[in-house]
Amino acid sequence: MTAVPRCELAPDFTVSRIVTGLWQIADMERDGRQLDQRATADAMEPYVAAGLTTFDMADHYGSAEEIAGLYRSSHATPPTEFLTKWVPRPGSLTHEEVRAAVQRSLDRLGTSRLDLLQFHAWVYADPHWLDELFHLQELKEEGLIRHLGVTNIDTAHLRVILNSGIDVVSNQISFSLIDQRALHGMTELCEQSGVKLITFGAVAGGFLTERWVGAPEPEIEELSTWSMMKYKRFIDVAGGWEEFQNLLQVVEGVARRLNVSIPNVACRYVLDHPAVASVIIGARLGQRDHIRDNIRLFEFGFDNASRDEIAQAVARLRPIPGDCGDEYRRAPFLTASGDLSHHVREFPKPYDIRTLADGRRRVLTGTYWEEVAGFCRALRIGERILVSGTTATHRDRAIGGADPAAQAHFIIDKIEGAIISLGGTLEDVVRTRIYIRDLEDWEPVSRVHGERFRHVRPANTLVQAELIGDEYLVEIEAEAICPSE
């Protein structure tokens, strides 16, 4: 059998270029069904024997971590790599709560150190997500985590993370023939920074297979797995069933010519991008496997004609909106249920509000200078919200390093969090003022403003100014007018 190649995420850590995904364990346990965990763990052995030694799971994939832990404790096999995720609830968590979450995964996996812990953030306007990453960085330095990764983080906030002293080696995101969002900045940033992409969705939950060529369009409610429900929504947004069938027929033609399967073509397309370390292919352990077919992925390559045919078919699809991970943050929510109801119960306000005697309301974000200089981050008077000049500061930390774009993104997040806390949205902003230290930074900062306010178009002024604090490259203030709550 063909040897499975590996990719280096860090000098001391490599993974299989095909990662076996265990998210379907949660689906197999749906509606109270129980798995024989020992038998399910034993079903991992053929994957390892074939060289597919890397498995991906999460704290919320049913009993996936426990099953992987059983496998680790009962099989004397070649080294395996267990990648897991932590998806915390929105809002503030203490360092002790973060430690407890990591310890829970350690206990389930039966290990003293997690190979790779991948972190998911729900709301960038709530800065607590950064607190949690800094806590994880401390636990990594303590030795409980070998390497840190992130999952479903967009390009802007991966830039914030990398420039804020948080050491991440990977970002797990959706990337496929249907979903091309990774090509709009993410792959470029990863190639520049050395971060690798671990990708899911390459076979669209099973839709990019021979089974669906020429098949009638199913209703979401008729589909048997959460993965298929999810990726049917991707297909709908990308142009619908007719355009998907066009893509599928083109891919089938390429597969026939190369004597491989449709999933082989779909996965190879993703793997051929330089920033991609691995594709995750889901497994229903103990029910069926596609090990031999998956490994054929490394037995062929595309010719120019095949690449051109695929590119033309992909170009006919409508782009999936937003950046990587936005399917979990804004409509359309491309999840199994079509919303976040099975993920999150509520989103707390990013900041606490204090109501004054005259009815005005104000937000404090806890930075040092708010107390020393006697000002608030934002003040609401009737329908008007005034946001103070804001720098890339979170508590006592400077965020974004020496990258003006990273600083600008975090500042706008902070402004958005203050406005949300006072009952508005970023779409309510009518005026922004930008102050930059170095004139050469005007373009990256302006591009960030354009990215975040493109659909709002507030009045704006940008000037060069001497900012207080050597670490600050940009400061932004804003005004919003929003209707009564």
Helix fraction by DSSP (H/I, runs of at least 4): 25-40%
Helix segment tally: 16
Q: What is the CATH first-level class name of the largest domain? A: Alpha Beta
The total count of strands amounts to 19
Our Rg estimate from Cα atoms comes to 24 Å
Write the CATH homologous superfamily of the largest domain.
Answer: NADP-dependent oxidoreductase domain
Which segments are poorly predicted (pLDDT under 50) over 5 or more consecutive residues? Answer: none
Enumerate the strands of the largest sheet in spatial order, edge to edge or round the barrel: 3-4-5-6-7-8-9-10
Our count of domains comes out at 2
Q: And the CATH topology of the largest domain? A: TIM Barrel
The gross shape turns out to be: globular
State the major sheet. Answer: 8 strands, parallel, barrel
Class by SSE composition: alpha/beta
**Percent range for β-strand residues:** 15-25%
- Mean pLDDT, to the nearest integer, reads 95
Known CATH architecture of the largest domain: Alpha-Beta Barrel
Report the end-to-end length measured between terminal Cα atoms: 64 Å
Description:
The chain is of the alpha/beta class and 485 residues long. The chain has 2 domains: 323 residues, NADP-dependent oxidoreductase domain (TIM Barrel, Alpha-Beta Barrel); 129 residues, 2-Layer Sandwich (60s Ribosomal Protein L30, Chain: A). It is 34% helix and 20% strand. The protein contains 16 helices and 19 strands. The chain has an 8-stranded parallel beta barrel, surrounded by 5 helices. A 7-stranded mixed beta sheet has the order 11-12-13-14-19-17-18, covered by helices on one side. A two-stranded antiparallel sheet has the order 1-2. A hairpin with a 2-residue loop joins strand 13 and strand 14. Helix 4 crosses helix 5. The termini are far apart.
